[in-house]
């Protein structure tokens, strides 16, 4: 990444603060992956481990401190937070100029308006997957399944925008959608982010569609070392011979999300330096 070299020459090492509250094992794995990716790129990252019973006040105090610390150009709070904490209040406490995850309302608002801002990492990663796989979005019908603030809503919005990697006609589905399979079969590009292992089988997919599987689900597997394996929301084996392209789980959208976290941190460091 040439921007990293240019920042290093100015004596700046892009830095990310990661905040992990509690001992959720999946979150611990994600945080570890992020730290390793930053180290590999010679970027600085530090993870702040807080106990599961940390109070809202303590957490907000840490965010305030990180907001002021010039070593950190980006801050990421690993979600989900334990249920006694107010997730939205925590996200809103992050300085939008340090919003490495692109999920602060200021970043999301700018994204909707098409104004320069850090993009939400997973949707950003999906756009890059489409771009570097030469998959045209203009005029295509994209069906997004799932309406979360971190995946479904932002990717649907980005793909409908009037700009490169946009210009798609987008349908957004969720748990109350009627005839989900029928709507999914109308998709040129099907993006699934629901957290339901293998729910999307070949009956949801039209011949030659592009399928992007965001889901990461643990399913029991006695033959696996850890007793489980990771699978997506799409039944990969069932649909693979029907599609033009499909992202695997693990190894598809996940690594792109981490790459975009790096890109956002470098973007924020550049912005701070200019
Ligand atoms: N690879 C990555 O980097 C990455 C990043 C983020 C998330 N993920 C994974 O993506 C999945 C989704 O996570 P998320 O945080 O985006 O979503 P989420 O907050 O868990 O929400 C799930 C969404 O899916 C919808 N949904 C659930 N069951 C459904 C069904 N049977 N039919 C249709 N829609 C259904 C829900 O509808 P309602 O709104 O009606 O409840 C909701 O909008 C999870 O497996 C998560 O681990 C992966």
Give an account of the 3D structure:
The model has no long low-confidence stretch (mean pLDDT 97). With 274 residues, this protein is of the alpha/beta class. 41% of the residues are buried. Helices cover 38% and strands 17% of the residues. The longest helix is centred in the last third of the chain and has 21 residues, at 253-273. It is built from ten helices and ten strands. It is globular. It has helices at residues 2-9, 25-40, 56-68, 87-93, 105-113, 121-132, 152-160, 180-184, 236-239, 253-273, and strands spanning 15-21, 44-50, 74-77, 141-145, 169-173, 189-192, 210-213, 217-220, 228-231, 245-246. Helix 2 crosses helix 10 (253-273), helix 6 packs across helix 7 and helix 6 crosses helix 10 (253-273). The structure holds NADP nicotinamide-adenine-dinucleotide phosphate (NAP).
Features:
single chain, five-stranded parallel sheet, alpha/beta, three-stranded parallel sheet
User: Largest sheet at a glance?
Assistant: 5 strands, parallel
Number of strands: 10
Mean pLDDT: 97
Q: Taking strands numbered 1, 2, ... along the chain, how are they ordered across the largest sheet?
A: 5-4-6-7-10
Helix/strand-derived class? Answer: alpha/beta
- Identify low-pLDDT runs: none
- N→C terminal distance: 18 Å
Described by the principal axes of the CA atoms, the overall outline is globular
Helix content: 25-40%
Estimated radius of gyration: 19 Å
Tally of helical runs:
10
Ligand names: NADP nicotinamide-adenine-dinucleotide phosphate
């Amino acid at each position: 990444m040439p921007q990293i070299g240019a920042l290093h020459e100015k004596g700046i090492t892009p830095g990310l603060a990661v905040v992990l509250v509690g001992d959720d094992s999946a979150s611990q794995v994600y945080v570890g992956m992020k730290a390793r990716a930053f180290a590999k790129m010679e970027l600085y990252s530090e993870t702040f481990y807080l106990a599961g019973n940390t109070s809202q006040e303590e957490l907000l105090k840490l965010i305030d401190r990180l907001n002021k610390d010039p070593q950190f150009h980006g801050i990421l709070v690993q979600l989900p937070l334990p249920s006694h904490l107010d997730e939205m209040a925590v996200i809103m406490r992050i300085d939008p100029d340090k919003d490495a995850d692109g999920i602060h309302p200021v970043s999301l608002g700018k994204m909707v308006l098409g104004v320069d801002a850090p993009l939400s990492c997973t949707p950003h990663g999906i756009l890059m997957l489409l771009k570097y796989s030469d998959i045209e979005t203009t005029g295509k019908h994209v069906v997004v399944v799932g309406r979360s603030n971190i995946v479904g809503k932002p990717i649907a919005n980005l793909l409908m925008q009037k700009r490169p990697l946009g210009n798609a006609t987008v349908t957004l589905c969720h748990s109350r959608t009627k005839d989900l399979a029928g709507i999914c079969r109308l998709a040129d590009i099907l993006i699934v982010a629901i957290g339901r292992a293998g729910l999307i089988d070949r009956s949801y997919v039209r011949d030659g569609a592009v399928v992007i599987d965001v889901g990461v689900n643990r399913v029991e597997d006695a033959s696996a070392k850890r007793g489980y394996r990771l699978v997506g929301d799409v039944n990969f084996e069932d649909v693979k011979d029907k599609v033009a392209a499909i992202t695997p789980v693990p190894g598809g959208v996940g690594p792109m999300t981490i790459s975009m976290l790096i890109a956002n941190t470098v973007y924020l460091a550049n912005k701070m330096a200019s």
